[in-house]
Amino acid sequence: MIEWNADQIELRAGIAQWCEALSANHVERDEEGTFSWDKWKLVRESGILGLPFDERFGGLGLDLVTTMGVLEAFGEGNRDAGVSFSVTTSMCSTGVPLEAFGSPELKQRYLPRILSGELIGAHAITESEGGSDALKMLTTAERDGDDFVLRGSKTFVSNAPIADVFVVYAKTHPSGGALGVTALLVDKSTPGLTVGKPMKKMGLRTSPLSEVFFDDCRIPATQVIGRVGGGFLVLDHVMKREILFSFIINVGEMQHRLDRCLAYAKQRMQFGKPIGSYQAIANKLVDMRIGVENSRRWLYDTAERLAKGYKVTTEMAIAKLITSEANLASSLAAVQIFGGHGYMAETGLEKDVRNAVAGTIYSGTTEIQYNRVASMMGL
């Protein structure tokens, strides 16, 4: 396991100091299902949005593993999982692809404002017909002189109702397969772009999402991220970071949940004994501990291999699969350990269950991860 040095420990402690204010009224916020601009102001002040980015653009220049260490501490301290999700969405959707593939002009124009949180980012990938099959996308970007004309729609776009800028993945060569998709940076103010109403959802309610529609949006060719036809290369790079950043936050959340359940099991008395003394409860706590440690190891080991340039397709799928399922199991166990109190909204534990379900769906469903690992095994 990773042993954090003094600087890394200081960074983790530094982000923790923001978490009490970010967690305030998290149960009530979830019930309202609204995004908090006051909390986003705190996010901006914390500097978390700039963790892995070059200092030239206002970032902190942290390496991949250190960034994840800070995000884990953020997940452990912050109870508003919607805020956490909007943070990683903005970082990964626009900041990550711009720094890795954007032109110098795009970087200078957008990155400083994305890293400061002045601009909120989103990526538009999923379509209602295609779902996890991104190659079935129908949204097109047709070249017309110095522009691309964008037509189509996207759904389940996290951050869309609050986003200022989108990375849109569209077909530029309809018969080009994986080489026919291009990533374009699109401003919300672009004529013909319409953001739908926020969609009600099961969990992560303080992180809004909606549909986005493109009706003959003219996008300058200079807004292409990477190269024309290279959209899947951009997307693959982005999704690796999205999994590592989003799910290491879940590890922090699981650690907090375990600590909370352990303390409760030691002080809650039933039939004259602490409930933790009963094997049925103790086993749940052990399983929660195993889930935390297993997820943590897979995510950090995968990140270290990625940073060294290794191919991590299988490891990434396993890490995502293990963590998302462990987080869901942990949340259900917590409700059971707290019993009737856990079922009540005021404890925030039933909210954890609803939030955890999302992790088995976004960034590739559990079923997709099984298929991916199986294919890498030659099946």
Overview of the structural elements:
This protein has 13 helices and 10 strands. It has 379 residues and is of the alpha+beta class. The strands form 3 sheets. Strands 1-4-5-8 form a 4-stranded mixed β-sheet. A 4-stranded antiparallel β-sheet has the order 2-3-7-6, with no helix packed on it. It has a two-stranded antiparallel sheet with strand order 9-10. Helix 1 packs parallel to helix 5, helix 5 crosses helix 8 and helix 9 runs antiparallel to helix 10. It is globular and about 80 Å long.
Provide a short characterization of the protein structure.
The chain is an alpha+beta fold and 379 residues long. The protein has 3 domains: 6-120, Butyryl-Coa Dehydrogenase, subunit A, domain 1; 122-229, Butyryl-CoA Dehydrogenase, subunit A, domain 2; 232-376, Butyryl-CoA Dehydrogenase, subunit A, domain 3, CATH 1.20.140.10.
Overview features:
4-stranded mixed sheet, Butyryl-CoA Dehydrogenase, subunit A, domain 2, Butyryl-CoA Dehydrogenase, subunit A, domain 3, 4-stranded antiparallel sheet, Butyryl-Coa Dehydrogenase, subunit A, domain 1, 379 residues, globular, alpha+beta
The CATH topology of the largest domain is: Butyryl-CoA Dehydrogenase, subunit A, domain 3
Beta-strand residue fraction: 5-15%
What is the number of strand segments? Answer: 10
CATH H level of the largest domain: which superfamily? Butyryl-CoA Dehydrogenase, subunit A, domain 3
Sum up the overall morphology in one term: globular
User: How many distinct domains?
Assistant: 3
**Percentage of helical residues?**
40-55%
Q: Please give the order of strands in the largest beta sheet.
A: 1-4-5-8
Note poorly predicted spans.
none
Main structural class: alpha+beta
CATH architecture of the largest domain: Up-down Bundle
End-to-end Cα distance: 32 Å
Query: Could you give a short account of the major beta sheet?
Result: 4 strands, mixed
Rg is 21 Å
SSE sequence, one letter per element: HHHHHHHEEEEEEEEHEEHHHHH
Calculate the mean pLDDT score and round it: 96
Individual helix count: 13
CATH class identity of the largest domain: Mainly Alpha
